[in-house]
Design goal:
The protein has one domain: TIM Barrel. It is of the alpha/beta class and 416 residues long. Strand 7, helix 14 and strand 8 form a beta-alpha-beta unit. An eight-stranded parallel β-barrel has the order 1-2-3-4-5-6-7-8, surrounded by four helices. The protein has 15 helices and eight strands.
């Protein structure tokens, strides 16, 4: 009997030692390497239709257009995980009161569908601005305490919904790109707000890996303001986003401020074309600003264009801009003993075409940018997920059932 006890203890010690080798100390349960963001909405039904089962389910809406073979094709292309944006607004709307359980269940079904295709999944709670007959958005959650409380309860319920899934296959991101702490006054409200969301999620799901970020659009500088030691939990992944340089990656985006909509036709990098050709493109942009921008804004927009171009008019300057967010996150990680495997570049990419805009970014520029960003992430040991499957930044689909050019996906396939 004593011998049997000794053998059992020896076996248990061996198993524990193996487990320690298999999962590094302090590592998140969920791990990933190369990913893609799925579409949040495709048809964008307005809130007055959210109570209609046919309009809102299945959820997220990509389920109406993609099947498991489409997801398996992404695995075959070299992805090992998908980031699945889920708009929280329907969960906060009175319109869906009778369908609320079905919404949570449908998100769970969607995550399982991704897993069946052989891919891991991050369920990403992806708030957007209100508007377009949409009553609740990012600003409401950030600035109305009652709405933030409701959002916190949503986070709790979503964590509970995912709690029984294999934690190696499913993770939860508590809020995409929190729009707070962006003003010049230097506020730092997000760390405490995020701790409240974290506490709610962790109480509901003790094994689930939780994805956390900095404030102000999840940029690198905001992540560097976070003290990870205030979250006493190793089962966490930290995320940041980078679309630098914004002048090139968001050309023509009508929703990205009052400057970018006038910008189109710039190459990546700016030195990819002869200077005479670049100057002609810049003159066209200037003429567009002079003809279409509000009179009071024209001089400011023209000056801003020149200022931005000057920061990237050589390859050395451009590479410095693109390297900066990674250097910031790397320094933060080393200072706080956060391992690179627990950091992810959650979003990056280059616009293909703004909806309704005739300009289409040359596919070779998009592929070159994605390759360069992937190289930076992987050099630092960070995982990454490109934005996005379809839509304006689509790498698989474009608009209206059309397919995007294959260049970006071919660049990703070549990584294997």
């Amino acid at each position: 009997m004593a011998l049997l006890g000794t053998m059992i203890k020896t076996l248990m010690a061996a198993l524990l030692a193996f487990a320690a080798l298999a999962l590094p100390a302090g590592a998140a349960t969920f791990s990933m390497k190369r990913g893609l963001n799925l579409d949040q909405w495709v048809t964008w039904p307005t809130e007055d239709r959210w109570g209609d089962r046919q309009a809102i389910l299945p959820y997220p809406e990509w389920r109406k257009f993609l099947n498991e073979d489409d997801l398996k094709a992404l695995k075959d292309a070299g992805f090992d995980f998908l980031r699945m944006p889920v708009d929280p607004a329907p969960f906060l709307s009175d319109q869906t009161a009778a369908l609320r359980d079905d919404l949570y269940g449908s998100v769970l079904d969607s995550a399982r569908m991704v897993n069946r295709a052989g891919l891991k999944v991050i369920v990403d709670l992806h708030l957007i601005p209100a508007g377009g007959n949409r009553k609740i958005g990012m600003s409401d959650v950030m600035h109305d305490p009652a709405v933030f409380d409701a959002y916190t309860e949503l986070v709790r319920k979503m964590a509970r919904t995912l709690a029984k899934e294999d934690p190696k296959l499913v993770a939860l991101e508590l809020m995409n790109e929190p729009l707070v702490d962006c003003d010049a006054s230097g506020t730092n409200l997000w760390p405490d707000l995020q701790k409240r969301l974290f506490a709610a999620a962790r109480a509901a799901a003790t094994r689930l890996t939780l994805v956390l970020s900095g404030g102000c659009y999840s940029n690198a500088e905001s992540l560097a303001k976070i003290d990870p030691r205030t979250i006493a939990d190793d089962n966490v992944i930290w995320t940041f986003h980078s679309y630098d340089p914004f002048l090139l990656t968001h050309q023509g985006a009508s929703w990205a401020g009052d400057f970018i909509p006038y910008v189109s036709g710039l190459p990546y990098p700016l030195t990819a074309v002869p200077k005479t050709q670049l100057d002609m493109t810049l003159d066209t942009i200037r003429d567009r600003i002079k003809a279409e921008a509000p009179w009071a804004r024209r001089s400011g927009l023209l000056a801003y264009l020149d200022e931005q171009v000057a920061t990237m008019d050589s390859l050395e300057k451009l590479l410095g801009l693109m390297d900066a967010p990674f250097a910031t996150v790397d320094a933060w990680a080393k200072a706080n003993d956060v391992k690179p495997r627990d950091i992810t570049l959650g979003e990056f990419g280059m616009i293909r075409q703004e909806y309704g805009n005739g300009f289409v970014m040359p596919a070779a520029y998009r592929a070159a940018y994605v390759r360069d960003m992937i190289a930076r992430a992987e050099a630092h040991g960070f995982s990454w997920s490109v934005w996005s499957y379809g839509g304006a930044f689509g790498v698989v689909d474009a608009f209206d059932g059309e397919k995007a050019e294959p260049d970006v996906m071919n660049a990703i396939r070549a990584l294997r």
